[in-house]
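seq as requested:
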Amino acid sequence: MREQQEKETKPIKKHRFLTFLVPVAAALVIVFNAVPLVQGLLERKEADASYESLLQQTVTFPETEGNAAASKSASETETGAPETSDAAQKAEKISYPALAIDFASLRARNSDFVCFLYIPVLDCAYPVVHSSDNTEYLTTDFEGNRSVDGSIFLDRYSSPDLTDANSFILGHNMRSGSMFGCLRRFYQEEGLCDEDPYFYLYTEDSVRKYRIFGYAQVEEDDPLYDTATDYESDAGYDAFIQKVRDISFYDGNSSGVDFSARPKVVTLSTCYGNGATRFVVFGALAGTAETE
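struct tokens:
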């Protein structure tokens, strides 16, 4: 009788052990998977804080609502117009946000620094770097530290003096909205671009003002990124502008840009969706002002 009772109790103890083991194992799996997620969040938070600190130390923004209201005016050399004294005298005035940028400090921190990008309507502002290797700044921040945010960088095939017919500036699309995660707001918030359709590239000597005339989604292997794509010839340039008009979610025809003068274009590009898609924003040079 006693032996029979012991036999009957053994399966019960085993069952209780399994009942205890299953939730413990499940909890361990959750913890195991959660660790890299938490680590990733901490790394992104640290990266965002690093850039915020960098901006606080090197850039002073206008102390006005939206930052874009406080601006300076300077003589504009019309895109495509002869750069003569007569043309300069007849040129219109362009305005630009009066950022005070410590270029010497930015150069000292990173010799790859080429310009400073500012998109007022998105409150997006970052130093731009240029390297011979496009993979370098995917995981390296402006000060040379490993970072999940990487940096905003000029494509290796684009001239650092921005003289190409179409220059590419690249950056990560961060979920927090940092880096070029800010660009998706153009797609998500209809009419946002019309509020202030300009972005600016600052160098120590000048400010370049770009009028946004389109934004779209393209595949990562789109001919847009092919180094063999012809942007420099008149025919190639015109075909490119027509393509932008065809694929754009934004009515670039209302931008007022005179493309017959073939102004220089800067394309801002970031990953979108499943990673095989890119979101691109196109800006045409509206004018260049010499800084004081």
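DSSP finds six helices and twelve strands in the chain.
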